[in-house]
Amino acid sequence: MQFKISDAAVSFGANTVLECINFEIKPKDRIAVVGRNGCGKTTLLKVISGEIEPDRNDSTHANIIRSDIKSIGYLKQTAFDDDSVTLIDEIRKIYAPIIAIKERMDELSFLLETVTDDTKIKEFSALQEKFNLLGGYYFEKEYETVIKKFGFSDQDKYRPLSDFSGGQRTKIAFIKLLLSKPDILLLDEPTNHLDIESTLWLEDYINNYEKSVVIVSHDRMFLDKTVNIVYEIEYGETYRYVGNYTEFVAQKKAIREKQLKDYEYQQKEIARLTAIIERFKNKPTKVAMTRSKLKMIEHMVKLEAPENEDKRTFHIDFQPESKSYKDVLTVKDLEIGYDRVLSTVNVNIERGERVGIIGANGLGKSTFLKTIVSQIPAISGQFSFGSNVKFGYFDQQTTHTTSNKNVLEDFTDEFPTLTQTEARKALGAFLFTGDDVFNNVSDLSGGERVRLTLCKILRRKPNFLILDEPTNHMDIIGKETLEDILNYYEGTVLFVSHDRYFIKKIATSLLVFDTDGVKYYKYGYEQYLNSISQNTINYNNEKTAIKKEKKVYTTPGKEKAKRERKIKKLEEQISLIEKNIALIKGQLNDETICADYVKLEQLQNELNENEEKLLLLLEEWDTIV
Description:
It is built from 19 helices and 19 strands. By secondary structure, the chain is of the alpha/beta class. The chain has five domains: about 1-70 and about 180-245, P-loop containing nucleotide triphosphate hydrolases (Rossmann fold, 3-Layer(aba) Sandwich), CATH 3.40.50; about 85-180, no CATH class; about 255-300; about 325-520, P-loop containing nucleotide triphosphate hydrolases (Rossmann fold), CATH 3.40.50.300; about 555-625. Strands 6-7-8-3-9-10 form a six-stranded mixed β-sheet, sandwiched between helices. The chain has a six-stranded mixed β-sheet with strand order 15-16-17-13-18-19, with helices on both faces. It is globular, with a radius of gyration of 32 Å. The relative contact order is 0.08.
């Protein structure tokens, strides 16, 4: 056990956010924290990181146990000490101890070329061992790989931090956090700024991470592929489930059903016993029996009915005000971008389609939407909307806008003909009830701003929805609600999303932005994945067929003999190199040459070369045997 907190509570003034926290982290745990927006998930991460000190739920000091924890990593801000520093130099700060050792080793190496000094030789040997243990021989490859996987180019590495957008800066901070490899890694909505390819890489990274990870996320597929424990926060309390997200949902449903069944059974039993008591309580011959029944009721451990799940969500009976013609959007040779062409798009979207736009970051997915709604000009090419098309556009930047108006003023300014009662009813459907409508728009959370924007868009009843990352900042119930709305919507939808579960549920066709062009697929996400998989299988089959064609003119006996000769030769080579490696290692451990720096360096180089050769031979042997 690394971390444990028992019976803790967190309050801000009179507002109790977390009422009863019981939470435990063991080495190599993969934990998800789920719950509604505002339930206290981020607050819990701050408790774990030590940023917030909780109380016990009886107002005394909370019991927190931390054991064998050297570092806790939490991505809580994206501010950097110096914005003029380049991306690569900012990342290399993580490896300051390794870089310092390397610089000292270089100094010693230079000195020892001209003079023999036993003290410096010993220092060099000690530093070399430490350098190896810290991963000094591969740390540069490690950070280069991560930078690339997060979508930064070779040119980006040498740009100052001030050149990057807010989302990119968040990713840079995220890279630093991952590479620092804390004992407990705290991730708050880690996939929000990642494309699908980067998310897949992060899944693999987390699954191979040798320490503990705690994730707050509303990405259902991501949680299914990464976690083995789920903590749910509901009504201020934590509940622990073993398994991934899908397993958690099934367990929770089964537990609630059992609780309800047991409660209903007990209530029926109490009612049955009470009826017997009432019927026979005044009969002298039944006094003992009625007392027995009464004691049975008194001795029962009374079960509570399970609390209703917090299923509050926005709702709207939404259909287009009018129907568009068959052709909704026609795009021909449309070059999109700002100072350069990011992609060229050709597509025809028809009424009723739900087109999901996917692909790597930086290829122009959001730029394409901004172009067709005329927020930015096209570089070349053309696009046109069909007859009677009325579109509604959701911009992912909505969550960054500021306003001095309150929610009600912001809404009625766009719909001045509505009465205040009508406006409050419309806002109430999106969970802005009571005094919520007087909250300043600038003070709203990301999820609240998304709901307000959707409320305004859907109020206009467009027949073509253009949505850029609509589910960012939404909790899972909010996503499920939007999925239901869009699936029953009779208009046309064009949307950008990195949420694979959302794409799978909504898209009837896909527009895929790739480095080799933009392709349109007339089918959904699952079939798209199957087609990619099938293409890979076909490609491998073609390679196998080519190999088989080469063997057509070789008799089985000759082929077998040739294979056996090859194996024997490889095994002889492997045996020889293994002997060389053993011999070199023996020499490295020889006390008589420990002070001979030149000899030690020569032997180490020979050892590295032999080990590389051995690895290549073993790989070749493995493919033949």
